[in-house]
């Protein structure tokens, strides 16, 4: 057996002729131990992604960290299953993460509109989306994975495959993930997410003639995300924050300060226009401009997908069935299960409105079918981390909203139903992306595609339960408004603003249109609209620490003397950063559980512990504690 993938794994040969890494013997990698490990990691990554994604607006793909952690656990508990067992575990890790990445876009919006969702409703809608996404993606498996081998590169799948093949080095990566988890966990325990005995936000606000705000949150999970996504994305997001906090906010503040009379803020009659503080400008005006920018970015992304949609459907329909490409009974069962559960969920969430249940369910299934195929193809081109889920979801939500408005279903209860239909759609899209990525890895290493399908479906169902539970647990914090809310929820805020505003007719269209025009201008300048828009919308404290994380990576790269040393440091840095994200989010979630159950009482920092000085101390400790292990890794890894 070779210790690396053959060049044929990357193309140059027809998919039907490709010889996988494991080319003989049993194709099964599963047993009770593998399934148990996979479920544990699916829970871990679903909870971590839900927490960190709602806080930052960004999510981290779980395939590579899942393969690293899984390699160690498989070596301990199921060594005989080898790389095929490790593959199933990474697939289940991706399953939990991808479902969370989708559901947090829409489901929390129900809380933001002042409504409630039961665990059963969220779970049923999520499971329906999972099964339908997997089922439809399975129908086009042969086209996407086999026939397009070498044409659709599946970059993240190839990286995961290489990680699995080189899994003898997994213990080193797990060590760095453990260090990161420890750093993230310790800092989180003492800050606002847990005991809240030390301030970790450095804040400067100017309320005079030129109104502005600059903040940095010394948060380990956000620094880890910054290291992973790199300098380009981080700088682009921070550019959005600069535009928001140092251009638009001061400009609005200047003009309203000239106002006379008793005019008040449009959505807050208790605040006079000429007396607005920075937080009022941000919450009542800048927020909606940012929503318009994200809406513009979503529609531009959806329009750019039209050629891909057309070609994907044409090529999919034109592909002739080849040997071994027929649908299995399991595939059909999963697909029909998704359709049936989708309709059951539709009737359950429609409040007894049979016409709504039927029409909205059919429309949701059609839109999901369309975008699942697109998601599978785009995953093969740009990977799941860059999958334009936002754009596809916004386009779908707007179409469903227009149906509701046309039918006269405009009250808050109807909006709640609409958002649950949207949750089904976004979950199907996200599940399909993660599923296609995992199936490509299975094809490359030589596993059983039907086995991966079953294990991924189990992980997806587990992920739907975990994410719904996390959202319900955090519901009181997600509903908070005003300055310094604990969870930014940029995508969910957009969904609630968009649907609620269209249905009630109260959308502040001037600000939305300004944001749309700004987004279109960025598009004409060939700039990444959605990335800048999310940066514009998110608190500058979030974007600043993400940028610092990217600067840490840049420092590590620039101080490396050789290419091998840089590669080793960055690899260990990504592992450590994955640990920071996991530690910060999981320990933060544990802290909230302990607070809700009254096991611990949240404190209130005072004196120096409440000052900017403490924020600087925590930030410096976080940066130093993250850099030192990465820099020390050079002697062992550089060759």
From TrEMBL:
It is a multi-pass membrane protein. It comes from the Bacteria. It holds the Pfam family OPT. The keyword Transmembrane helix applies. It is found in: Membrane. One of its GO terms (cellular component) is membrane. The chain crosses the membrane at residues 32-51, 57-78, 99-117, 123-144, 176-198, 218-243, 285-310, 330-349, 354-375, 387-406, 418-435, 455-474, 507-525, 531-552, 573-594, 614-631. Coiled coil: none annotated. Keywords: Membrane, Transmembrane, Transmembrane helix, Transport. GO terms for molecular function: oligopeptide transmembrane transporter activity. InterPro entries: Oligopep_transpt, OPT, YSL-like. This is OPT oligopeptide transporter protein. The lineage of its organism: Bacteria, Bacillati, Bacillota, Clostridia, Eubacteriales.
């Amino acid at each position: 057996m070779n210790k690396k993938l053959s060049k044929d794994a990357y193309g140059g040969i027809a998919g039907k002729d490709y010889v996988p890494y494991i080319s003989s013997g049993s194709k099964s990698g599963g047993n009770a131990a593998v399934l148990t490990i996979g479920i544990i990691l699916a829970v871990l990554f679903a909870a971590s992604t839900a927490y960190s994604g709602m806080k930052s607006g960004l999510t981290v793909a779980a395939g590579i960290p899942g393969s690293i952690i899984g390699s160690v656990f498989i070596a301990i508990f199921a060594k005989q299953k080898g790389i095929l067992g490790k593959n199933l575990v990474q697939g289940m890790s991706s399953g939990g993460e991808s479902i969370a990445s989708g559901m947090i876009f829409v489901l929390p919006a129900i809380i933001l509109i002042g409504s409630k969702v039961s665990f059963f409703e969220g779970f049923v809608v999520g499971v329906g989306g999972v099964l339908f996404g997997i089922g439809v993606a399975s129908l086009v498996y042969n086209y996407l994975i086999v026939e397009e081998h070498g044409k659709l590169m599946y970059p993240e799948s190839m990286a995961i495959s290489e990680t699995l093949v080189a899994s003898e080095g997994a213990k080193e990566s797990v060590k760095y993930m453990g260090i990161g988890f420890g750093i993230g966990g310790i800092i989180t325990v003492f800050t606002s997410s847990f005991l809240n005995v030390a301030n970790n936000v450095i804040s400067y606000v100017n309320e005079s003639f030129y109104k502005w705000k600059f903040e940095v949150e010394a948060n380990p999970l956000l620094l880890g995300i910054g290291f992973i996504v790199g300098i380009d994305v981080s700088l682009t997001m921070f550019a959005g924050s600069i535009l928001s906090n140092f251009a638009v906010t001061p400009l609005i503040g200047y003009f309203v300060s000239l106002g006379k009379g008793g005019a008040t803020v449009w959505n807050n009659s208790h605040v006079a226009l000429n007396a607005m503080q920075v937080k009022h400008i941000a919450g009542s005006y800048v927020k909606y401009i940012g929503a318009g920018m994200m809406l513009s970015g979503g529609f531009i992304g959806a329009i750019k997908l039209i050629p891909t949609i057309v070609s994907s459907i044409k090529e999919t329909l034109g592909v002739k069935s080849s040997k071994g490409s027929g649908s299995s009974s399991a595939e059909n069962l999963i697909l029909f299960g998704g359709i049936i559960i989708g309709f059951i969920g539709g009737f359950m969430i429609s409040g007894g409105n049979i016409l709504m249940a039927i029409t909205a369910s059919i429309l949701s299934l059609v839109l999901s079918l369309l975008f699942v195929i697109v998601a599978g193809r785009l995953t093969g081109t740009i990977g799941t981390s860059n999958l334009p889920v936002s754009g596809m979801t916004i386009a779908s939500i707007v179409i469903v909203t227009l149906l509701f408005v046309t039918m006269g279903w405009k009250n808050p209860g109807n909006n709640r139903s609409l958002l649950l239909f949207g949750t089904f759609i976004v979950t199907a899209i996200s599940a399909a992306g993660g599923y296609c990525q995992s199936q490509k890895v299975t094809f490359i290493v030589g596993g059983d595609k039907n086995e991966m399908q079953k294990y991924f479906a189990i992980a997806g169902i587990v992920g739907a339960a975990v994410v719904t539970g996390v959202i319900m647990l955090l519901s009181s914090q997600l509903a908070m408004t005003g300055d310094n809310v604990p969870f930014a929820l940029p995508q969910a805020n957009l969904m609630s603003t968009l649907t609620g505003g269209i249905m009630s007719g109260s959308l502040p269209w001037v600000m939305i249109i300004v944001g749309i025009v700004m987004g279109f201008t960025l598009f004409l300048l060939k700039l990444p609209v959605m990335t800048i828009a999310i940066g514009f919308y998110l608190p500058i404290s979030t974007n600043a620490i993400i940028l610092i994380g990217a600067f840490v990576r840049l420092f590590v790269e620039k101080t490396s003397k050789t290419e091998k040393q840089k590669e080793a440091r960055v690899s260990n840095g990504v592992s450590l950063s994955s640990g920071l994200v996991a530690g910060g989010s999981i320990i933060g979630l544990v802290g909230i559980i302990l607070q809700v159950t009254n096991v611990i009482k949240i404190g209130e920092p005072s004196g120096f512990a409440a000052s900017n000085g403490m924020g600087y101390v925590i930030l410096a400790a976080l940066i130093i504690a993250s850099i030192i292990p990465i820099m020390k890794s050079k002697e062992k890894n550089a060759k």
